[in-house]
Amino acid sequence: MEGGHFLVARRNPGGSQGGKWEFPGGKLEPGETAEQALAREFAEELSIPVAVGRRLFEGSFRNGAKTYRLEAWQTTLLGRDFRLTEHQEIRWVAPDQLRNLDLSDSDRQVAEALLKAVESPSSYR
């Protein structure tokens, strides 16, 4: 969150989640910590470095027979020269706009948790 806004990215068209909005991030590779994976994903998908702060959310998401662990982390962007490699658009959105986006199913759960935290600032900061 920066200036009261969340950074979201719109997936490229195609596939079951094509065109949906999501928070930047991705899956762990073998031997990575969550913080390392998030920094790598920002570099790969948006071409910017980030400093990863504290974890803001933990949960899980089921897709068919698979269950995925979800985490959201506070990040500080260390650059502004975005180059999109896996997304068609990025956008800073206010909390009230976040609820209206066509988010991917897993990111909807993360968004609701983050919005609750923003509405109760003592749990977010």
- Under the CATH scheme, the architecture is Alpha-Beta Complex
- What string gives the helices and strands in order? EEHEEEHHH
Q: Give the spatial strand order of the biggest sheet.
A: 2-1-5
Dominant shape: globular
Class inferred from helices and paired strands? alpha+beta
Biggest sheet features: 3 strands, antiparallel
Q: The CATH topology, please? A: Nucleoside Triphosphate Pyrophosphohydrolase
Number of domains: 1
Uncertain segments: none
Radius of gyration: 14 Å
CATH-level-4 superfamily name: Nucleoside Triphosphate Pyrophosphohydrolase
Strand content: 25-35%
Description:
With 125 residues, this protein is an alpha+beta fold. The chain has helices spanning 34-46, 95-98, 105-119, 121-124; strands at 6-11, 21-22, 50-63, 66-77, 87-93. The chain has one domain (6-124): Nucleoside Triphosphate Pyrophosphohydrolase. It is 29% helix and 33% strand. It has a 3-stranded antiparallel beta sheet with strand order 2-1-5. Strands 3-4 form a two-stranded antiparallel ribbon.
Q: What descriptors fit this protein?
A:
globular; alpha+beta; 125 residues; two-stranded antiparallel sheet; Nucleoside Triphosphate Pyrophosphohydrolase; three-stranded antiparallel sheet
